[in-house]
Design goal:
The complex is a heterodimer of chains A (179) and B (821).
Chain A: H1 3-11, H2 15-21, H3 25-34, H4 39-57, H5 68-84, H6 88-91, H7 97-115, H8 117-124, H9 128-138, H10 144-150, H11 156-178
Helix pairs in contact in A: 1-2, 3-4, 4-5, 5-7, 8-11, 9-11, 10-11
Chain B: H1 2-9, H2 15-27, H3 29-78, E1 84-88, E2 104-110, E3 115-118, E4 124-127, E5 137-145, H4 148-154, E6 159-160, E7 163-164, E8 169-177, E9 180-181, E10 191-193, E11 204-210, E12 216-223, H5 243-249, H6 257-265, H7 274-281, H8 288-301, E13 312-317, E14 326-333, E15 340-342, E16 355-358, E17 364-372, E18 376-380, E19 385-390, E20 395-402, E21 408-418, E22 424-434, H9 442-449, H10 457-463, H11 476-488, H12 491-499, H13 505-515, H14 518-529, H15 545-611, H16 637-648, E23 652-656, E24 659-663, E25 665-672, E26 680-687, E27 694-695, E28 697-699, E29 702-708, E30 713-721, E31 724-731, E32 738-741, E33 744-746, H17 748-758, H18 767-801
Parallel strand pairs in B: 1-8, 1-11, 25-32
Antiparallel strand pairs in B: 2-5, 3-4, 4-10, 5-8, 6-7, 8-9, 11-12, 13-14, 14-20, 15-19, 15-21, 16-21, 17-20, 18-19, 21-22, 23-24, 25-29, 26-27, 26-30, 28-29, 30-31, 31-33
Helix pairs in contact in B: 10-15, 13-14, 15-16, 15-18
Classes of the chains: A mainly alpha (179), B alpha+beta (821).
């Protein structure tokens, strides 16, 4: 499968694309272990790298200037460097364009995650069903009609109300957390 | 409000509304907070969803791996079903048409150009220029029904006359210009690539004809030509299985193709010719003049004390052996009648260590260092260090791992022999063990003469040249076959593919299958059964590429071998230069030390006699020889005491001639601040009246030496960090017993002038020489570390590149590289 197809699948929320990306894991894992990473941490690092890629894919303007493999490899590298608090300049001798991009993307996501920490906590406090509705709506870009069908609501209006309540509830929790 | 915020955040507001909202936002703090809150919740929900997706995908992958074996069996059963693709080029635009419920993707196409389009389901269409008459632009509509659900929902059937066909997909192409249907120009062909997990050789293409009732009858079955599609070499993995993993394992970037290519291609597979061996053998390990000067010194003393070289028995144990064995190279001297031979493991400056040098060869690798057996320990009195020596038979041992049966051990054992009079000579015994000594099984040795059975990296390098870019070499299908060829180590089979580039790939598949047996035969039989063709651009001219390949392969291999040899020669040269430096340094230092000792002893004696109220009798007692301990059988008590005190560097208090005699030594300790932060640190003492500097010994982070009160000493510390130099100098006071030194940075020029002022013309070596030596030593060691790492890496990679060369504890399972998912 071509890289562009994988990206499209990820953008469409198709799990097949993500599963394909796991094919790159073994080699990246070897590299990580060779560079001092504990084996049981490699999965987490790789998943974080996937998150960086997936998050970037949400942006329609995002284009890859290298193969997915190269990009994922670089991203994993920087996730690991960040975690191990290694000096990147020392660790990477000739830094290429893709590495600069990868390094920035890793930082951006880390920043975003820490900024949103309270929102994550808020989402943890609402029901699983509520979370699913919000994810389907905001991430998977499903319409209220589709959500109603998928989650078997009696009508679209019920679904719409439910979505509204969930969002309000999450906001209220979040508001408490920042106060 | 809620809805407004959401629309705003999702970018769904009109331009005016957006502006109005933003104005409001700027004024209303509560609203701004509300918007931020909602945005964060939205973003968090998205990220959380992605995390869940990633985790779920991982769980599925894990499950998929477990099911892999089960999956392969299932495919074998399903393989009986036939996969048909249907195509119709005679569409009618009619709302009641078959498959009206299917969405149509429409592409606007420039008719004057060749066009390639890819549909959402992955069908790739190659449409030649002017496929539809001479219109400029046209709309190409495509309906796809590639899965069972779409086919059923759309109401398409799978009847061919009265036979029911099994199908996995249909698609329909319609070309229109301003609503008017266009016909495919005669002789023009649209090529369609339909995605499939398995290629079925029975695949056929049917045209669909709709009857008046809206049913489709599939007619006119055509065999589909399985063109292979070229892809760029960048997309293909032409490395042996496990190669990239090994690269990653060693901490290198496996996605850097430039690096991985050049590394792989640097392994040569040719058989070394005898001539090159001789060429290499030319290099000598140290310069002749150093050796000669030693010989001369030793032999000037007394011509009759000529030292004869020892005779050695050199053999491998056990012998015979096989690949993978660790054997011992034994070097045993005959009886040493007069004198002794120094062993190894002694401090660098103490005595000349015996050493073994073997020319690097791919047939073996050293296991551990040179060891000795039965050496006696003896303390060298002058130098105050431990020596190890043999006085009966010298026994040296070196463990060696056999990597291939074409064993070539070329090199020399270097040892120092001294006679009882204290004269010493360095000898070099050459070692040359070739092939398998005492080997009765000649078949094994013959085999080693043959070229490697594995696929030569040079072969692969040639295949990735432009000339092969249009052949079936540059296809995913060949990549798959190559992986198996790597595993069976059969370059001949690879050559079958190269020799038949003008034919369909299945032709080579079946020849290779006939050469094989067992599981590998099955794999290639399965390849052959796919009946795959050639690339669309294949031409009879491709037949000639085999010659080109052969010629180029040899050239590339030769180049790789030469490049490797150059590297090894460079290493050898570096080693030789380093050995020369070490040897010269150790000889010069020993001479300097002997001179210092002689002068210091004389000064002490003169002082002792002066204190005794006597004049010092000349000539002086035994001349100190370096290397072997001197015997201090002086002819007067006073001489004996003074000599003992000078050797041990301890104070002397005695009476002689009824007078008190006292010669004071006092200990000095020097500590260097932040010593660990420098590349290297050296501490010297420069005595005013002695012919050479003394280097202070380091012990537990402290430099120590006993100072003679009869001299004034200058303390000099030198250090280097990167390209920066550091220095400390101080004229020591008699009472100084400990110093804590803080180094200061110094410019290189300034340092040079400073050191020049300290030079003693009486010395063989000065502080500046020692600094130069330490600098080179540091660089050499750094370089050596890298070299060793590189060599270990290369050996690991060799295991992957020459998989059939190594003894295997278990045979690798040759499971076909089935898709993971």
């Amino acid at each position: 499968m071509k890289d562009i197809q994988i990206i499209t699948q990820i953008q469409e929320g198709n799990q097949k694309g993500l599963r394909k990306l796991y094919a790159y894991f073994p080699v990246i894992q070897k590299w990580l272990v060779a560079n001092g990473c504990e084996k049981n941490q490699t999965q987490d690092i790789f998943q974080q790298a996937l998150l960086v890629l997936c998050e970037k894919c949400q942006d329609e303007k995002f284009t890859l200037t290298a193969s997915i493999e190269t990009y994922l490899f670089s991203v994993s590298k920087f996730v690991w460097y960040n975690q191990a608090r290694k000096d990147r300049k020392q660790a990477t001798s000739d830094i290429s364009e893709i590495e600069i991009a990868a390094s920035n993307h890793v930082d951006e996501l880390a920043e975003k995650e820490s900024k949103l920490e309270y929102a994550f906590k808020a989402l943890e406090q609402i029901s699983a069903r509520c979370r699913e509705i919000l994810q389907l709506f905001y991430l998977k870009k499903k319409t209220i009609a589709e959500i109603a069908k998928q989650l078997k609501f009696k009508s679209e209006i019920v679904a719409k109300n439910q979505k509204y309540k969930c969002l309000q509830f999450a906001k209220a929790k979040a508001f408490q957390l920042i106060k | 409000m809620e809805e407004m915020i959401e629309k705003y955040l999702l970018g769904l507001l009109s331009k005016e509304d957006r502006k109005a909202f933003e104005n409001e936002l700027a004024q209303d703090e509560n609203l701004a907070r509300e918007v931020n809150l909602q945005r964060d919740i939205m973003e968090a929900a998205k990220l959380q969803g992605l995390k869940t997706d990633i985790h779920n995908a991982y769980k599925q992958v894990k499950l998929g791996k477990m099911l892999k074996t089960a999956f392969i069996t299932a495919v074998a059963v399903l393989g009986l079903a036939i996969f048909y693709v249907a195509k119709t080029l005679k569409p009618k635009i009619d709302p009641t048409e078959v498959g009206a419920s299917l969405p149509t993707s429409v592409f606007n196409i420039d008719n004057t150009k060749d066009t390639v389009i890819e549909t959402t389901n992955g069908i790739i269409l190659h449409i030649p220029a002017y496929a539809f008459g001479d219109v400029d632009y046209y709309d190409l509509g495509i309906k796809e029904a590639l899965n069972a659900l779409d086919i059923m929902e759309s109401g398409l059937n799978t009847m061919s006359d009265s036979n029911l066909l099994a199908t996995a997909g249909m698609f329909k192409i319609t070309a229109t210009k301003d609503g008017v249907e266009l016909q495919l120009t005669n002789g023009k062909e649209i090529t369609a690539q339909v995605p499939t997990d398995e290629i079925d050789p029975n695949i056929m293409l049917f045209d669909g004809v709709e009857d008046s009732t809206g049913n489709v009858n599939w007619v006119n079955p055509k065999k589909i030509k399985n063109y292979l599609v070229n892809c760029s070499f960048d997309e293909l993995n032409f490395y042996p299985p496990g190669y990239l993993v090994k690269v990653a394992e060693n901490g290198y970037d496996p996605t850097n193709k430039k690096f991985t290519d050049s590394l792989y291609w640097s392994f040569d597979c040719g058989v070394e010719s005898a001539a090159t061996n001789e060429e290499n053998w030319e290099r000598s390990y140290y310069e002749a003049d150093v050796l000669n000067s030693l010989n001369r010194d030793a032999q000037i003393v007394e011509e009759s004390n000529r030292i004869t070289p020892q005779l050695w028995k050199i053999k491998l144990n056990p012998n015979p052996f096989k690949v993978g064995d660790i054997v011992t190279l034994q070097m045993i001297s005959d009886q040493i009648d007069d004198g002794l031979i120094y062993s190894n493991g002694m401090a660098e400056n103490c005595a000349s260590n015996a050493s073994l040098m073997l020319k690097r060869h791919r047939s073996f690798e050293l296991v551990g260092g040179l060891t000795s057996m039965g050496a006696k320990e003896q303390v060298d009195e002058i130098l105050g260090c431990k020596t190890f020596l043999f006085d009966k038979n010298a026994v040296f041992l070196q463990k060696i791992k056999i990597l291939n049966m074409n064993l070539s051990l070329q090199g020399s054992l270097e040892y120092q022999k001294c006679n009882s009079k204290g004269n010493c000579v360095l000898f070099e015994r050459s070692i040359s063990l070739r092939g398998v000594t005492n080997q009765t099984d000649s078949a094994v040795t013959d085999q080693a003469e043959q070229p490697r059975p594995e696929i030569c990296p040079a072969s692969i390098q040639v295949l990735q040249s432009k000339r092969f870019a249009k052949t079936y070499i540059a296809t995913k299908e060949f990549e798959q076959r190559l992986q198996h060829l790597f595993e069976i180590c059969d370059e001949t089979s690879l050559n079958v593919y190269i020799a038949n580039l003008d034919r369909d790939i299945c032709y080579a598949d079946s020849i290779v299958a006939s050469r094989m047996s067992g599981a590998k035969k099955e794999i290639f039989e399965r390849f052959a059964a796919q009946k795959l063709g050639n690339t669309e651009t294949a031409s009879p001219a491709f037949a000639k590429l085999a010659d080109y390949h052969k010629k180029k392969k040899n050239a590339y291999d030769e180049a790789a071998r030469k490049a490797r040899e150059k590297v090894l020669n460079k290493y050898a040269k570096e080693d030789a230069t380093k050995q020369n430096q070490d040897r010269k340094k150790s000889v010069d230092e020993m001479q300097d030390r002997a001179n210092v000792f002689e002068k210091e002893l004389k000064t002490n004696l003169v002082e002792a006699y002066r204190q005794a109220g006597l004049s010092y009798p000349i000539p002086l007692a035994p001349k100190a020889m370096y290397i072997v301990p001197i015997t201090t059988t002086g002819w007067k008590n006073l001489d004996q005491y003074v000599t003992a005190s000078t050797i041990s560097r301890t104070s002397l208090k005695t009476t002689y001639n009824n007078k008190d005699i006292s010669i004071e030594y006092h200990k000095l300790k020097v500590e260097v601040q932040n010593e660990a932060s420098y590349d290297f640190v050296n501490v010297y003492l420069i005595p005013n009246k002695l012919p050479s500097y003394q280097k202070m010994n380091k012990n537990n982070a402290v430099y120590t030496e006993s100072l003679n009160e009869l001299f004034d000493y200058e303390l000099v510390c030198l250090a280097k960090k990167g390209s920066e130099y550091f220095v400390y100098t101080d004229l020591l006071q008699k009472k100084d017993d400990s110093k804590s030194v803080t180094l200061r940075s110094i410019d290189k020029k300034e340092l040079k002038t400073l050191l020049k002022s300290m030079n003693k013309s009486t010395a063989n070596r000065n502080v500046s020489d020692d600094l130069e030596y330490e600098e080179q030593n540091f660089l050499y060691n750094q370089n050596l570390k890298k070299r060793k790492k590189d060599e270990v890496f290369r050996r690991e990679i060799e295991d992957v590149i020459w998989p059939c060369n190594l003894p295997r504890t278990s045979t690798p399972t040759a499971a076909p590289e089935a898709e993971l998912f």
